[in-house]
Amino acid sequence: MEGLRLWLQVLALAWGCGGMGLAHLTATAPPAPAQACSEFSQRSCEECLRNVSCLWCYTNNTCIDYPVRSVLPPSSLCSLSNARWGVCWINFEALIIAIAVVAGLILVSIAVCCCYCCYCRRRSRRPDEEEERLARKREERRLQSLQRKHERKMKHDEIRKKYGLLQDSDNPYSRFENE
């Protein structure tokens, strides 16, 4: 129950509703008098960590004030693998590794999503533009082919006319008169 209350206090402070959250949480339990962290030395980790400003060190079972000027406690106070804050079951070393792994996974997943979305967006656009370009070229080639075909037909007709081989368009199935 105490551990849950402590986590709720920390979460309430983190989300910015500290005054309201603490008043609601401490209304059910009497407020603990502010004691120095050193008073909890040689007791238990749970008793020390009831006060959120305390840090428990397992090497010499001491409860010390958390060094708020630095993010992590210096190794001169307590090694990271033996330091506890907030809860007794996780040390700073594991906490740093877990946060680094989670942050790395989040960054990698964001990068993969961005790359995938950009690739899909380009891929979805390119076929349309490329298809239009290919259709234009295909139409140009078809028109050029028709134009060349028409020019060949006209040239062949001129040659037929020159040698008298041009047939009547009224009766294309008539036989040549020379035969």
Describe the protein's architecture and organization.
This protein has 179 residues and is mainly alpha-helical. Helices cover 55% and strands 6% of the residues. It is built from four helices and three strands. The chain has helices spanning 2-14, 18-28, 45-48, 92-162, and strands at residues 54-57, 62-65, 83-84. A three-stranded antiparallel beta sheet has the order 2-1-3, with no helix packed on it. Strand 1 (54-57) and strand 2 form a beta hairpin.
Helix percent reads 55-70%
CA-atom Rg in angstroms: 43 Å
* Count, helices: 4
Summed over residues and divided by their number, the pLDDT gives a mean of 77
Give me the secondary-structure category. mainly alpha
User: Which sheet architecture does the biggest sheet show?
Assistant: 3 strands, antiparallel
**Low-confidence stretches at least 5 residues in length (pLDDT < 50)?**
11-31
Name the quaternary structure.
single chain
Q: Can you count the beta strands? A: 3
Give the strand content: 5-15%
Order of helices and strands: HHHEEEH
Give the terminus-to-terminus CA distance: 120 Å
Provide the spatial order of strands within the biggest beta sheet.
Answer: 2-1-3
- Shape, please? rod-shaped
List the SSEs and their pairings.
Elements: H1 2-14, H2 18-28, H3 45-48, E1 54-57, E2 62-65, E3 83-84, H4 92-162
Antiparallel strand pairs: 1-2, 1-3
Helix pairs in contact: 1-2
